Amino acid sequence: MPPFDPTWLIPFAFGLLLGALLTALLQQKRLSRREQDLALTEHRNRQLATELESLRNRLRELEGERERLMTRNTELETRLEAQRRHNEEKLAELHQARAQLKAEFEALAARILEEKGRQFSEQSRHSLDQILAPVREQLQEFRRRIDAIHSEEQKQHGSLLQELRRLQEANQKLDEEARRLARALKGDSKAQGTWGEIVLETVLERSGLRQGQEYEVQGSFRDADGKLLRPDVIVRLPEGKDIVIDSKVSLSAWQEYVNADGDSGRQAALKRHLESIRRHIDQLSAKNYEDLPSLNCLDFVLMFVPIEAAFSAAFQADPDLFARAFEKRIIVVTPTTLLATLRTIENLWRFERQQENVRHIIERAGRLYDKLRGFLEDFEKIGQQLQSTQNTYSQARNKLTDGRGNLIRQAEMLVDLGVPVKKRLPDLQPPKAD
């Protein structure tokens, strides 16, 4: 057996050492890659957490906005109900005042006529009719105005549930008409613009507002630079403010979205539709209708989208669309929301007209009271004059008939003494007691 040579172990040991070194390097490289992956994962998790928190904040903002809108709606309904009750109370007070005034006048007139009526001659009665005629006309006019307001109140103040049902039915019909006509237009921009104005006109007609009084169509105005602006509709408010409504938004891309076959085509059309609405918001905001010197506009403009689904799809694609428009002082409305808004404005105008009628009635009641007071003063003077006439008549008659030296007795004594007469004096009957 040859002797053991340890030199051959050196390559073996070197190989083991090199293998261990390579293994350590590979493990370190894997560990470094895993650390990088872990860092990327943690970074991605932080980004996702930030996005999640942002979405939660946005959700809270939307919930807060919804609560504010619901609160505002409740406040408006409460104000309308309070105004209605106030008007009913005023109307009831006027009815009561009219009835009381009529009763007092009839009682007073009956008492005066009972006391003094038998003393009037035909001429006095004719004069009394002339005095009473204006008062009678005032009472009849007052009664007509009260009855007219009561009739209008009964017609206009129906059940709130029935009003909401009519509003819902009108919105459904309007939306169905919008869908049917939109399919027929097929991307004709000019026809779409005209059709949008027609839908807007239909909403205005169903709102109860009157053209030429509560709203105007296609007015012409110039801004401070002399540029001509033609808003589609200007709605007047009772406070002297104006609201501009624009209906010129293009729906060509929306038609492409509705008629697209594939999902990719629909998504591309939806993107163009969203960009079209954004672009129109920017263009409408740049017109600065609220700065027109000849208008007293509110700080926002209503942008009318005639198809509910068109705005709904754009809003789903970009939930910030409404907030973005609001920042530019633009409020996007559809037939449903616009009709509800215009109905609220119509209710405000109706209450304004009722308040004006109440003011007229109060003024007329004041004039009627003054006229009645003047009549009673004149009537009292007539009674005093009649009493004075009665006293003068009694004194004159006493001189004729009473006492030993009265005129009739002295005249009869002349006849007894032989004075010729054609006919003797008539016997005077004593006056009848009242």
Task: Give a verbal description of the structure.
With 434 residues, the chain is mostly helical. Among the domains are: 26-151; 186-352, no CATH class. Helix content is 72%, strand content 6%. It contains ten helices and seven strands. The protein has helices at residues 9-116, 122-156, 160-185, 189-207, 252-259, 263-286, 308-317, 321-327, 335-401, 407-416, and strands at 215-217, 221-222, 228-229, 233-236, 242-246, 301-304, 330-333. The protein has a five-stranded mixed beta sheet with strand order 1-4-5-6-7. Strands 2-3 form a two-stranded antiparallel sheet. Strand 4 (233-236) and strand 5 form a beta hairpin.
Strand content: 5-15%
Number of helices: 10
Q: Into which percent range does the helicity of residues fall?
A: over 70%
Please state the CA-atom Rg, rounded to the nearest Å: 47 Å
Provide a brief overview of the structure:
Among the domains are: 26-151; 186-352, no CATH class. The protein contains ten helices and seven strands.
